[in-house]
Input
Amino acid sequence: MNMDEIAIQMREKVSASDFDRSVKFDCGADGTVLIDGNTVSTDDGPADCVIRLAKEDLEAMVAGKLDPTAAFMQGKLKIDGDMSVAMQLSQVI
Output
């Protein structure tokens, strides 16, 4: 799955929510997914919260195979910025 396909799957979940902050999923050389309110893109830009993780882990989270909280506790993702935004987003994804 490429980053555009991941963004499409996230867009379906986020568009139906009332999420109103910005989060960037940074997968290093594989690319980024930026959620800004109900908009999801593969653009790189500023965000309230940046989540750094492997692309494979992002795919697993979007597919519902990896719990975001468990991924954080296992060190599979690192959060920079406002952690409350990441916690709010975990209810959406």
